[in-house]
Protein: Cx9C motif-containing protein 4
Amino acid sequence: MGQEEIKEPCKKQACDIQACLTKNNFNSQRCQRVIELLESCCENCKYNSTHCASVSGLLKQIKKTTKEQKPKV
Structure:
């Protein structure tokens, strides 16, 4: 494990999210799995990474979009 990984334990997951979002025209629903991986990383490091600040916003966006797409009964 490199020195940078110790300082920023969730950097890889954050980069994976950026790559996924770029590939999918910034549709966060298509990147839900990689966003969840970042969330898991943040939980494991007790949110001690600068990359963890964005995960809650991404999760809220996914939940909001999912809620809007559910058909009303």
